[in-house]
Predict the 3D structure of the following.
Amino acid sequence: MKTKLKIRRDDTVVVVAGKNKGKVGKVVRVIPEDNRLVVEGVAMVKRHVKAQGQQAGSLIEKEAAIHVSNVALWNAAEGRRVKVGFKVQEDGTKVRVDRKTGATV
């Protein structure tokens, strides 16, 4: 089921559950169909790459997708997690806001 996610590409997030708990990284890719995201430097997996032409086969490490429920938006300035809400401004635009302080994200 595709849902509207509160986290977008280039947001800074913190992992709140799983073996990577506590790691902070930037969202590289969002997969809304599966409610998953790829976070830079988090959930690293090894993949075998087949040889192509003159290039030898090798092992590469890349990020795997993690579920959106296992991450929270991170406010680096205050050093805390952020709960996200939505607010419609006077000009009609919808923006994400910090539920605690009311500041736009």
Observations:
- Strands lie at 12-15, 24-31, 36-39, 44-49, 58-63, 65-67, 71-75, 80-82, 84-88, 94-98.
- The CA atoms of residues 87 and 95 lie 6 Å apart.
- The chain is about 0% helix and 45% strand.
- The mean pLDDT is 92.
